[in-house]
Amino acid sequence: MANTHEYWMRQAIELARASKIAGNDPFGALLVKDGEVVMTATNQIHTATDPTHHPEIVLVRDYCRQEGITDLKDVTLYTSCEPCVMCSGAMVWSNLGRLVYSVSHEQLLGITASNIQLSSGDVFLNSPWKPEVIPLVCNEEGLRLFS
Question: 0.90 exceeded by the pTM?
Answer without folding.
Answer: yes
